[in-house]
Specification:
heterodimer, A: alpha/beta, Rossmann fold, 2 domains, four-stranded parallel β-sheet, about 10% strand, globular, B: mainly alpha, Fumarate Reductase Iron-sulfur Protein, Chain B, domain 2, 20 helices, elongated, 4 iron, 4 sulfur cluster binding (chain B), iron-sulfur (chain B), transmembrane (chain B), Fe-S oxidoreductase (chain B), membrane (chain B)
Chain lengths: ~260, ~450
């Protein structure tokens, strides 16, 4: 597939005097991380397939400030937030969708008191509403009967009480959804949150992602589904560590649906 | 001379309640050392949370075994306390089983019968609790922070409860008129035969002794609370009322920082403006927390409320994988430091004399703070709405913004965000390159 994806920017929309239906906030991982870029592209394909009028900020997007804030650097976080808010308010952004739960949480919860008030949804919530509205259809075919376990991202689940949207999507694939020992509000972290992604772990007897991967493997899955680019990396590393990458795939929900759609 | 017992009782009551009140005042004073925090919003939601989580024990039963055992002791404790009211009135007025005549033998018998059954259930449960702590050796009771006093404290509370329940049953079993009434002695009628062969006078002495020891024991236990983790039986209520109502992922935006950031971003701000009158005398706000005074009052109330059950620690991903971090220890350290500061105030007529110590380093190490993934598992696990994560975050803020003491890799990450708007060293202009990659 060498065809280029059509990804309009907010600037292009503005030049035409139009407003997109939704701003797709790509996030740093989605923009730069090789694995996460695949998720971004899968989601864009779904947006096109559902004929969603969307745009990205492109080079005008900057880190939400989440890792800086969780690392304790409130200054840097607020500088990032205020800058991003200025850009988005200038474009009169109303609705944002993002495939990263960290961006989702920060934009939704921590931007309003700094002047950024938007309707922010996670891509699993957005995809679910597209399905409900009949704008997107899933043929379960490829994943029918496959054992899929879903790893709850902390910043989607516990942080914002979104547990069902991703699960509903997996069920729509006619897949067999199997739950890990710790799931939903008691889901175990993948180990990346709170800026841990960017540093080595403190001394201990195990890596958090290995512990979580073991819980996932206990469910004998064919696919480990994720809803966060950082969780995806951690679980992929965990599966490699267990030398199971040949049998078990780690995939984002958007990729599952895009694959089912054969986009 | 007939009034001697009444007077002695009144004195004991005044001493017991008085000393407890004094300590509660101290507790309130210590909590007020923290920063003010506005929790005047959503009153109805807050009352609901208190009713559901504290009164209704909704989060306790998430772990069914410990939860159900706890509900038995909790219900027993609350209901048996109706009896304490009668004991206090009897003691003050020199009456005996005052309520019997007020509510009639049948209702009275029903009540006491219920208390007796609950007392036995509490006894059984307390034994189960003791076994869990001392024989079964559950992992969450064996952490490093549970050595010494915290372990003894847990057991002392259980012993207190055994003694109080036994005294209650003995007092009923040796109460001849009560046994003769034969209503409500559902359990004590089986204990009464143990005292057969004693004459009426000796029985009376045993009954009085049990009665006195029971109420004195309750007064001692009341005063023990302040020195113990068991304070949760009272503080769980205000703590759940003041619990966080926002999404757990939402961390507060520091206002002092917002002011400075807004000033920096304001194109009309005069960089050479002289500070306003008096502004120079103000101490600049400290960012984050290095000691208990930097935390807010709800966080300090959290620390006093913690009963060291360890559900937070057992759910913590860092702790599960052998890191030093234990959210329970964060709460215990905060409480212990706050108590230390409180004693410092007591000694120095209400003024804090610098003791060269603080919460950071002397109690909580940076290694513990940096191990947190901010996953909120500890917050979710707490049965009484304690938020250890907020303390960890406030202390990280101090480390980073006041001391520039972040781990090197995090400094690199933050430099990248500052320079190119991403945690990795990629150019911001390349953010849309993915769209052109096949």
């Amino acid at each position: 597939m060498s065809e280029q994806l059509k990804v309009p920017t907010m600037a292009e929309y503005m030049a035409e005097g139009k407003q997109p239906e939704v701003l797709f906030w790509v996030g740093c991982a989605g923009s730069f991380d090789d694995r996460a870029k695949k998720i971004t592209k899968a989601f864009v394909k779904l947006l096109h397939s559902a004929k969603v009028d969307f745009a990205v900020l492109g080079a005008e997007e900057s880190c939400t400030g989440d890792p800086a804030k969780r690392a304790g650097n409130e200054f840097l976080f607020q500088m990032q937030a205020v800058t991003n808010i200025e850009v988005m308010n200038a474009y009169e952004v109303k609705k944002i969708v993002t495939a990263c739960p960290h961006c989702f949480n920060t934009l939704k919860n921590e931007y309003p008191s700094l002047g950024g008030n938007y309707d922010v949804v996670h891509h699993t919530q957005f995809l679910k509403s597209l399905l409900n509205d009949g704008r997107l259809t899933i043929e379960g075919g490829q994943f029918k009967g496959k054992r899929i376990t879903f790893h709850d991202p902390c910043y989607l689940g516990r942080a914002n009480n979104v547990y069902e949207a991703p699960r509903d999507l997996i069920r729509k694939l006619d897949a067999e959804l199997v739950e890990m020992k710790s799931c939903k509000s008691r889901g175990l972290c993948c180990g990346a949150g709170g800026a841990q992604m960017f540093k080595d772990a403190e001394p201990g007897n195990k890596e958090v992602n290995i512990e979580r991967t073991e819980q996932a493997l206990d469910t004998q899955p064919e696919i480990i589904a994720a809803g966060c680019p950082f969780c995806n990396t951690m679980m992929t590393d965990g599966v490699k560590n267990k030398e199971k990458e040949g049998q078990i795939a780690v995939m984002d929900i958007a990729e599952l649906i895009a694959n089912a759609e054969d986009l | 001379m007939d009034y001697l017992p009444n007077i002695l009782f009144a004195v004991a009551l005044i001493l017991g309640v008085g000393y407890f009140t004094r300590n509660v005042q101290k507790l309130i004073r210590n909590i007020k050392l923290g920063r003010e925090v506005d929790a005047s919003d959503n009153k109805s939601q807050r009352w609901q949370n208190m009713a559901r989580i504290a009164l209704g024990q909704s989060k306790m039963v998430r772990r069914p075994i410990a939860g159900l055992l706890h509900v038995v002791v909790y219900v027993g404790f609350v209901i048996i306390n109706i009896e304490v009211l009668e004991i206090i009135l009897d003691g003050l007025f020199g009456t005996h089983r005052l309520f019997k005549d007020v509510i009639g033998e049948q209702v009275y018998g029903f009540l006491i019968g219920t208390f007796e059954i609950l007392a036995v259930l509490v006894l059984i449960t307390v034994v189960a609790f003791w076994l869990r702590r001392n024989v079964i050796k559950l992992k969450r009771f064996l952490s490093a922070e549970m050595k010494g006093w915290p372990k003894n404290d847990g057991n002392i509370i259980l012993y207190f409860e055994v003694v109080l329940m036994c005294l209650f049953l003995t007092m009923n079993a040796t109460d001849v008129p009560f046994q003769e009434m034969n209503s409500g002695n559902v359990i004590s009628q089986f204990i009464a035969p143990w005292f057969e062969g004693m004459d009426v006078n000796t029985l009376h002495v045993v009954e009085r002794t049990a009665w006195w020891l029971h109420i004195l024991g309750i007064l001692v236990f009341l005063n023990y609370l302040y020195f113990s983790k068991h304070l949760h039986i009272l503080l769980a209520f205000p703590n759940t009322y003041f619990g966080n109502l926002k999404p757990k992922g939402q961390f507060n935006n520091l206002e002092a920082v917002t002011k400075e950031v807004m000033l920096m971003m304001d194109p009309n701000a005069d960089p050479f403006a002289a500070p306003t009158e008096g502004a120079e005398d103000e101490e600049p706000a400290k960012f984050g927390a290095s000691d208990v005074m930097d935390l807010n009052r709800i966080q300090l109330l959290n620390a006093y409320t913690c009963t060291e059950c360890g559900r937070c620690t057992s759910e913590c991903p860092a702790n599960q994988t052998g890191k030093k971090l234990s959210p329970r220890k964060i709460m215990m350290d905060t409480r212990d430091r706050l108590e230390e500061v409180g004693k410092n105030l007591d000694k120095n007529n209400g003024e804090f004399k610098d003791d060269g110590k603080q919460l950071l380093n002397d109690y909580i190490s940076p290694e513990e703070l940096w191990a947190c993934t901010s996953c909120n598992a500890c917050v979710e696990a707490c049965p009484v709405s304690i938020d250890p994560l907020s303390i960890i975050m406030d202390m990280r803020r101090y480390l980073v913004m006041e001391q520039s003491a972040a781990p090197m890799e995090l400094n690199n990450m933050m430099t990248n965000i500052e320079n190119n708007g991403a945690p990795w060293p990629y150019n911001q202009m390349d953010r849309l390159n993915w769209a052109n990659e096949a």
